[in-house]
Design goal:
3-hydroxy-3-methylglutaryl-coenzyme A Reductase, Chain A, domain 2; single chain; 13 helices; EC 1.1.1.34; 3 domains; alpha+beta; HMG_CoA_Rdtase; HMG_CoA_Rdtase_eu_arc; 40% helix; Alpha-Beta Plaits; 391 residues
Length: 391
């Protein structure tokens, strides 16, 4: 059976009527109703640039975790954190971690790096020509920077890293992108810069391509761990020993022992993160707040570090090296996503670092809560009470 082509309207494809036409065809073919996906409050006219062939809405339950107390440079005070998920226990677990960290005086957050990348590759006749090209790029950085920045008002070329193999030279363009996530911005700017480079006719150049997987878009990598992609954020706290037992039902000593076991387990498994579940917190906030959900691939990797202090207190930090967030552009302006961002005062210009700090603090709370649940033998029982575990 050949499926009929879904209708498109070249004049105005973003209407309630066009969405209904497409759903009707799918319903006829599948024999199943799309009633709920056809119920939405978002005006279709708001969706150009976010989706093609709009046909309806997939609704994900959303709850608020918190209050979360953050002592950041950009996020300061208490926040209710919107988290969209279908995993029972998740919001409750993060709220429990937030209760502990709030009682301990709040989480300190710091953005320590910020850049988005595109990494074109230039292929030469031999390695010597590739090396000489690299020297030429360094000498002409100002001209390359000027060419890149002709395409954007907010993007700035910070530097160009160089990586060599055989007769190839990868150029990793690092750009700041303001409050946008910036992948498209950086692609356009890098394209303009590379067109200028090509116009100078580099000697013995055999081939060029704008991307060859070194920027590791939508996937994590060692280079992201070391040099970052998006925001590099640290969330940290020292928890008084006397707070752990009444709230988490475990001791600092037990958490410290669990951390050592988790570090070794992650190492043996070849995991990209020694954390327990960064992805849960990152994905839930991303869904609620209109972030590019595929960037969870980079944004959910990170490092947990802990210390058992001499006085029995427990220091813990979570470092997210490649947190890709936006408070302007993309899906952030859609009505429900904008509401979630506005609930934390994180919508619009000048708010990207604030959102990054809130997400990092949220991740730390989730790490604390899950580790405590495992140590106190409450992990399974909590899922029995709130999650999907059913007889």
């Amino acid at each position: 059976m050949t499926l009929e082509k879904l209708p498109r309207n070249k004049t105005n494809d973003y209407t309630t009527e066009m969405a209904a036409e497409r759903r009707a065809i799918v319903e006829k073919h599948s024999g199943h109703s799309l009633f709920h996906t056809g119920q939405f409050s978002i005006p279709p006219a708001a969706l150009p640039g976010n989706i093609e062939g709009f046909s309806g809405i997939v609704q994900v339950p959303m709850g608020f975790a918190g209050p979360l107390l953050v002592n950041g440079e950009h996020a300061q005070g208490e926040f209710y954190v919107p988290m969209a998920t279908t995993e029972g226990t998740l919001v409750a677990s993060y709220s429990r971690g937030m209760a502990l960290t709030r009682a301990a005086g709040g989480i300190t957050t710091t953005v320590i790096d910020d850049a988005m990348q595109r990494a074109p590759v230039f292929v030469f006749k031999n390695a010597r020509a590739a090396r000489d090209f690299g020297l030429w790029v360094t000498a002409h950085f100002d001209e390359i920077k000027a060419a890149a920045e002709t395409t954007t008002q907010s993007g700035k070329l910070r530097d160009i890293e160089q990586y060599a193999a055989s007769k190839m030279r990868w150029l990793r363009f690092n750009m700041t992108t303001g409050d946008a996530a910036g992948q498209n911005m950086v692609s356009k700017a890098t394209h303009a810069a590379c067109q200028w480079i090509l116009a100078q006719k580099p000697a013995d150049l055999e081939h060029f391509t704008l991307a060859a997987n070194f920027d590791t878009d939508k996937k994590h990598s060692v280079v992201n761990n070391l040099h970052s992609r998006g925001k590099r954020v640290v969330a940290e706290i020292t928890i008084p020993a006397g707070l752990l037992e009444p709230i988490m039902h475990c001791s600092a000593q037990a958490l410290s022992k669990q951390r050592g076991l988790s570090n070794l387990g992650a190492f043996m498994a070849g995991a990209v993160s020694n954390g327990a579940h960064f992805a849960n917190g990152v994905a839930a906030v991303f869904l609620a707040c209109g972030q590019d959900i595929a960037n969870v691939a980079e944004s959910s990797a990170g490092f947990v570090y802990t210390e058992l202090m001499e006085n029995g207190d427990y220091y813990m930090s979570a470092t997210i090296p490649s947190l890709i967030v936006a408070t302007y552009g993309g899906g952030t302006g859609l009505p429900t996503q904008r509401e979630c961002l506005e609930s934390m005062d994180c919508y619009g210009t000048g708010k990207a670092y604030k959102l990054a700090e809130i997400i990092a603090a949220t991740v730390l709370c989730g790490e604390l809560s899950l580790a405590s649940a495992i140590v106190s033998n409450e992990w399974v029982s909590s899922h029995d009470a709130y999650g999907r575990n059913r007889p």
